[in-house]
Amino acid sequence: MTTTTTGPVSIGARLRAYGGSGRVIGIDTARGLAVLGMYGAHVGITEAFDWPRPETWLDVVNGRSSILFALLAGVSIAIISGGARPVDGTELVQARTRILVRAALIFALGGLLEWLDSGIAVILPTYAALFVIALPFLRWRPATLFMAAGLLAVVMPFATSVLARGGEGGGGAIVELLVTGHYPGLIWIVFVLTGLGVGRLDITSRRVELWILGAGVVLAVVGYGAGEAARALVDGTALAADLADVATTEAHSGSPFEVVGSTGFALGAVGLCLLVSGLARWIVLPLAAVGSMALTAYTVHVVIVDGIGREAFAQGGNGLYLAFVVGALACCTAWVLIVGRGPIEQVLARVSRRAAGTRPLH
Fold first, then answer.
1. CA distances from 328 to 67, 68, 121, 235, 304 (A)
2. Is residue 45 part of a domain?
3. Distance (Å, whole) CA 346 – CA 292
């Protein structure tokens, strides 16, 4: 016999239950880190990264935060479709329906945010497209996903370069979404497939968490190190101009070196967040709260920037960025403890589950 209780849920109960319903605190923490990083990329004042100068370290958010966000999209897709034990049969059809409906809603939200013309390169349309592109890969094994991601990391930067030159002056929205845009989907699928592979592992295992962190460090060192070596090799030569888009690790360059290095950075961040959250769950709660309602936090910041206008990008310091960070940490923590799931996240969950014919989590 089961007993059903009604009425408001206390903050203490929400605090004790936080992390239930299949949530992984470390993944929420990493997603929160990605959201706050995108705030910095959009309105933060940064200088070119230089290890001996800590004041330049904020530059790490440029390019890498959105890549971390995309990699975590792959992890989310994996969790929706069974995690370490992928669903099959009717459950697989339901999972694909949920993912497809979420993609449609996120694409619509992205379109609305682009309509605002805030000056921010909105990632959500590409994010939605990547959800759809990932659908055929839901039954792949982690090793196969990682190998596919590695192959595409090398091939797609060159393929998109060729396609972009062939489609100059035409192609429309699809070409921009997949090839020529700020977040070219044919390259960014690398991050989603990597995240899907991570989500197919037992990410509650300390050994797996250490493996993710170690793999991330290795890939970051190899990708960024080889990219810097390639740049130094071609600088000052006749090939410098021709290889400028390849022999670089610049953010959003889409070079193979940047793709591999940034994939490693994102993996390392995920591994570290998983490890830290396991040791200090309550310390990371505010960051995890932001990550648990990442779409809401992202959307609100775009709307606020649009309200401020172009002055948001002409700040004399990082006061606005810090206001976004503190505001998000405080407001999201309060919302999670008082209300629960974020408002946009509630809509996505309810609509996608109803479309798939599955019971809601709450």
1. 20, 18, 20, 43, 12
2. yes
3. 11
Instruction: Kindly give the interhelix angle for 25-43 and 285-292, rounded to the nearest 10 degrees.
Output: 80
**Which residue in this structure is represented by tokens 């606020």?**
304
Q: Is residue 287 part of a domain?
A: yes
Over residues 197-221, the pLDDT tens digits come to 999 999 999 999 999 999 999 999 9
Which of 201, 180, 198, 200 lies closest to 190 in space, CA to CA? Answer: 198
- Taking the C-alpha atoms of residue 116 and residue 307, their distance in angstroms, rounded to an integer, is 9
351-362 residue pLDDT tens: 999 998 876 543
Q: Is 216 inside any structural domain?
A: no
Q: What is the extent of the structural domain holding 103?
A: 19-199+281-356
Number of CB atoms found within 10 A of residue 153's CB: 25
Task: Specify if 251 maps to a domain.
Answer: no
Nearest partner of 28 among 66, 75, 78, 77, judged by Cα = 75
- Residues 275-314 pLDDT 10s: 998 888 888 999 999 999 999 999 999 999 999 998 888 8
The total number of structural domains that make up the chain? 1
The pTM is what?
A: 0.91
List Cα–Cα distances, 257 to 6, 163, 273, 307, 331, in angstroms: 55, 19, 24, 37, 38
